[in-house]
Hints:
- It holds the Pfam family WbqC.
- This is WbqC-like protein.
- The protein is of the alpha/beta class.
- It contains eight helices and seven strands.
- The chain has one domain.
- The strands form two sheets. The protein has a five-stranded parallel sheet with strand order 5-2-1-6-7. The chain has a two-stranded antiparallel sheet with strand order 3-4.
- The termini are far apart.
Amino acid sequence: MKIAIMQPYFYPYAGYFELFRQSELFVIYDCVQFPRRGWVHRNKIRRTNDAHESGEWLTLPIASCSQQTKIKDLSFAQDAEAEWYQRLQRFPTLYQALQNRQDAFETICSLDVPPVDYLVENLRFACSFLGLHFNVVRSSELSIPESYKAQDRILKILKELGGSCYNNLPGGRELYSQEDFRDNGIELNFLETMHISKKSVLQDILGI
């Protein structure tokens, strides 16, 4: 079975969704430390329709937490909904587009669940828009011992799920050893995404 394992990102670029397209099972990697400067809780979105605009950070209102907090244990801030509306309104083109798409508005503006649930639901929504299958499992559901770290943790997850091929993005080349995966009977495959736009797929969904 072809498996992809990635942290849940907030409306990532199209390359991320290539993992859904080319894998039979997608593992939401939520049993690891929350990367504060990563893409789990934020993305760069254009404020206008100017295609040359690089975009600004749109960040989910995550509650303060310790550096050791895992993604699965994140929570939204107490005033998250009000804060989220304020942040969305800093992106007038985005906010207007949401007003015109009830399904997108309800999905993106509903913060009444834990952040990891929110992120999974929004990935589901994006996959539906892109016509991709959404077969997922969360790594936190597998009860992998804490003693497994980095590559060893990935290998343990793949073995638990019966994976024969691990699909990863090009950035993972420096993290994983082809030889180690081969020794464990698993093919390590890196997808080529160099010609794919790096913009958030949210802009494509909303046509902005």
